[in-house]
Structures are given as C-alpha cells and as structure tokens.
Amino acid sequence: MADGELGRLERSTLERMAASRARRPVSALRDEPLYARRPRPLAEALAAGRAPRVIAEVKFASPSEGALRPGAGPAAAARAAEGYARAGAAAISVLTEPSRFGGDEAFLRAAREALPDAVLLMKDFFIDPYQFELARACGADAVLLISALLGPRLPEMLAAAGELGLSALVEVHDEAEARAALSAGAQILGVNSRDLRTLKTDLAVARRLAPLARRARIAVAESGIDARADADGLGALGYRAFLIGTAFMKAPDPGAALAGFLA
User: Fold this and answer.
1) Which residues pair with 170 in a beta bridge?
2) How many domains, in total, are found in the chain?
3) What angle do CA 213, 41, 157 make, to 5 degrees?
4) How far is CA 15 from CA 3, 22, 137, 210, 234, in A?
5) What is the pLDDT of residues 151-187, one digit of tens each?
6) Which of the residues in the chain have pLDDT under 70?
C-alpha cells in the first residue's frame, strides 16, 4: 500500500472498485455497447503530425489546487472535450477519480458519445485489472498506469491492459521508476514533474529524466507545463507530447486556451 496522498487514493479506489464490481461484474461490462468499440492506439496519435502533441485533460479539481472550474458534470466534460478536439488535441484525458479530482465515469462516457473517433485516455488510479474492463465499457482507448502506485505489479498490469487492447501511459517520477517502466516494456513513458508527497511541481524533474524518457517510443512530459515555452524547452530534450490540464481548465474556454498554446 502506498503512503500519503497516493495511499489515500489507493484505499478509496479499492473501495470504489469493490462497490462497482458488486453492481457491474465483468460479464455485465462486456455487454455494454461501448465495450465492443475497438480502442485506437495512443502511440500512433502522439506520433502523428507535428510536435508538440498535446494530451489535453478534462478535470474539474485537483488535490493541489482544489476546484478548477464550476459546473462539473457530463455535459460540461463533453463540451470541454469537444473544444479540445476542435483546437487540435492529439488525445484527450478525462479524470474519472471522484474523491480528489471531481471526476466520474459518466464524464468519459459523455466525451466518447460526443467524440466517437477521438483518442481518449481514462485518467484514474488503476490498481485492479477489473478497471481495464471498466475502461473499455466507458469507451477509453488508453489508461494511466502509475509506477509509484503499482511497484512490482507494473509488468502484469501493463500486460493486462494490452490484452484488452488498451494503450498505457506509464507515469514515472524518478530514475528507478523510469528504468523499471522501460524494463516492463512501456512504449509511452510519462514523466510527472509533480512531487506526490508535496504536490509541488518542478520541471527540473522532466529535464533530468529526459535521457531515460527518450528510450521509450513516445516521451510525454506531465504537470507544470503552463506556457508554450515550457513545452518547447522540453521538446528540445526529446519530449514528443505533453499532458496539460490545469492551465487549460482554469481558462475561461479550455479549447481556446489549447488553440492559443498550439498557435
């Protein structure tokens, strides 16, 4: 079991998944309409086109900043996702964790209904293979796997996601986690510059880990990217894509903020 904030999220996720499994066992999830959809590869979406490629995030709150914007709900999530798609997002991340990020599975379903062909990443705290079945039932193409949360279970969880056709963005925070993720076969390596203990961001983390991140097929920088200059600097070190949520969701129009970032 992880410690601190990550440990609290792990415990709440275990409780949430136990309740979900009781209501909707795997057999029921596999009967849901979106489950039959074939997931699109995240790596291809991030490799195509000119850099920087942006995974734009739909999230209404965060542990570090609290509420980011009012009016959270499926309709608002779908509107934000549509704005991102129009602005040129390579992929869209949707937070589904409710206790600290104000998310909901319904947000991802709404985004999928609005954007049948978009590449969608389900952003949650994946600790149980059941969640991959849930991701398919919600219309996800990809999932986030956090190395600090999974530890030695990362290879088996990476394999389990792949067996269901889901891409995995493997998130790391230091050199040891990056090496473990590469050894496990991670194709998309995300370097999170946020310290999970203090919740502070420092892009020096992404700069330091760039030589390891470049060994993956796609290197993604996460957290603390507020301006195009941040992405350009990290892009020069080999980062192909950037996961950005807070800066866009705090703007009056998230899609317009992304368009300005890419311009």
Assistant:
1) 145, 189
2) 1
3) 65
4) 17, 11, 19, 36, 38
5) 999 999 999 999 999 999 999 999 999 999 999 999 9
6) 1-3
Cis link prior to 25 (omega < 30° from 0)? no
Paired strand residues for 222: 192, 243
Print the domain residue range for 192: 4-262
- Domain CATH number, residue 170: 3.20.20.70
User: 3-class secondary structure for 87-148?
Assistant: HCCCEEEEECCCCCCCCCHHHHHHHHHHCCCCCEEEECCCCCCHHHHHHHHHCCCEEEEEHH
